[in-house]
Amino acid sequence: MQGDERFDTASPDEIRRGETTDVYFKNTHQILIKKNVSRGVVAEFTASSLPSGAEWGVFAGVDELISLFEGLKIDLYSLPNGTVFLPKDIHRVNVPVAVIEGDYSRFCIYETPALGLISHASGVATRAARIKSLLMDRRLISFGARRVHPAISPFVDKYAYIGGCDAVSSIKGAELIGKMPSGTMPHALFLIMEDQKKALRAFDEVIPEDIPRIALVDTLADEKTEAILAAETLGKSLYGVRLDTHSSRRGRFEDIVAEVRWELDIRGYTDVKIAVSGGLNEKNIPLLKKAGAEIFGVGTSISNAECVEFAMDIVEVEGKPFTKRGKFAGRKEPFRCDTCFSWVCIPAQKRTIPRCPWCHTRMRRMLTRVIADGKPLVKRETPEDIRGRVIQQLARIEEINEGLRSG
Predict the structure, then answer these.
(1) What CATH number does the domain containing 98 carry?
(2) Confidence class of residue 407 from pLDDT cuts 50, 70 and 90?
(3) What's the burial of 103, exposed, middle or buried (CB within 10 Å: 0-12/13-18/19+)?
(4) Do 242 and 273 form a contact (C-beta atoms < 8 A)?
(5) Rounded Cα–Cα distance for residues 397 and 339 (Å)
(6) Within this chain, do residues 279 and 338 fall inside the same structural domain, yes or no?
(7) Does residue 192 fall inside a structural domain?
(8) In terms of domains, do 276 and 324 share one?
(9) Residue 392 neighbours by CB distance under 10 Å
(10) DSSP state of 25
């Protein structure tokens, strides 16, 4: 390995050389070269299902996919980065999120890393988006850097942000998305200083003023006691208090949040926000939001999200429909209705634009060629732009759901 072997990671060059692939693709490559077999194929990236509980997914990792295939004599088509998609269309046909076209021997060794990149990125982005859909009017921060290998924590933070997180806690992850890292103080500060007031005052004196004063309030005493202490110590400069309680003491987390909110309010600290972290997930977040939490630091649930299990399957060989059992042969063109988010796949050779069977509006062609003969055709979007696309789609999903509830 070219990189530092003490951390057991692959370098970008090793990934591009196909050294992280499954060995049977290398075997296949050797056979094709030795036997002088050259076949032009069309292969589609699809997901037969989504992680448990997900009604929709967020397709992500397009930048990495382009970086992987750049320079190869292939054409690559893809959904836009950050597209909310369904695994199957209205006719149960698998929706292709990306399509690769070229001589199979040129790209077969890249199937494993290609799938790993989009499966991981889409899994993190999907979970972040699902949580953000519960917190559209609240602040969501990625706290997951400590739950993944440090070499990939910036990657995880990037796609947590793209999926909807408002900020990330790790320094390198924040740098990657062009933002300031978000976070204030750990329990260790209070333990080392041996006094809550001293620790809070030291933070206020040393840390720049543009960093919000959010005091951790569950280190040495009851949460409401430490919250009141923080409010009295920092006064108007206190922006919020953070509870990292979850299962560390008896009592339901949402009840503790409600108790702290009450105690702060009756003392006039109504502007002090409550932040929560530790063990947050899609089940307890709505309860904590209802209890009064306004800032949510989510770690493991996002950083260790189930991946989207994409597969890459050949669907055409030398221009003829041909695939393995259980798959739909032939190249497909996916279309989405931007009104109701329904999907329809049609044979690519038809070159027609279908109408949504529910809304009766013309659907939108979703695949765009991003690589032509090895040359990238699109500029990299900023993480902020991609995130904006995701947030717009989440807002539309909420409109659709609200219409179903009221109808």
Answers:
(1) 3.20.140.10
(2) low
(3) middle
(4) no
(5) 9
(6) no
(7) yes
(8) no
(9) 12
(10) H
The pair of three-digit structure tokens given for residue 162, joined into one six-digit string: 């793209």
Please compute the mean of the pLDDT values over residues 278-291 and round it to a whole number. Answer: 95
List strands edge to edge, sheet with 74-78. Answer: 320-321, 310-317, 40-47, 98-103, 74-78, 368-372, 375-376
Please report the pLDDT score of residue 1 as a whole number. Answer: 43
Give the rounded distance of the alpha carbon of 96 from its chain centre.
19
Q: Strand, coil or helix: what is 240?
A: strand
Cβ pair 79, 308 in contact under 8 A: no
Q: Is the pLDDT of residue 80 over 80?
A: yes
| C-alpha closest to that of 140 among 116, 107, 162, 111 | 162
Contact yes or no for 195/226 (Cβ under 8 A): no
Q: What is the DSSP string of 32-82?
A: HHHTT---EEEEEEEESS-STT-SSEEE--HHHHHHHHTTSSEEEEEPPTT
The total of structural domains in the chain comes to 2
Strand, helix or coil for residue 334: strand
One-letter amino acid for residue 58 of the chain: V
Helix (H) or strand (E) holding 291: helix 285-291
Residue 338: Cβ within 10 Å count? 14
Nearest to 238 by CA among 260, 278, 211: 211
Q: Which amino acid is at 27?
A: N
Residue 62 shares a structural domain with residue 110:
yes
Residue indicated by tokens 């951390």: 7
C-alpha pair distances (Å), 54 with each of 86, 125, 282, 309: 10, 12, 11, 13
| Contact assessment for residue 295 and residue 240, using Cβ atoms and an 8 Å cutoff | yes
21 and 78 both lie in a single domain = yes
pLDDT for the residue numbered 53 = 78
* Tokens found for residue 384: 């902020």
pLDDT, tens digit, 9 for 90 and up, residues 307-324:
999 999 999 999 999 999
> At residue 302, does pLDDT exceed 50?
yes
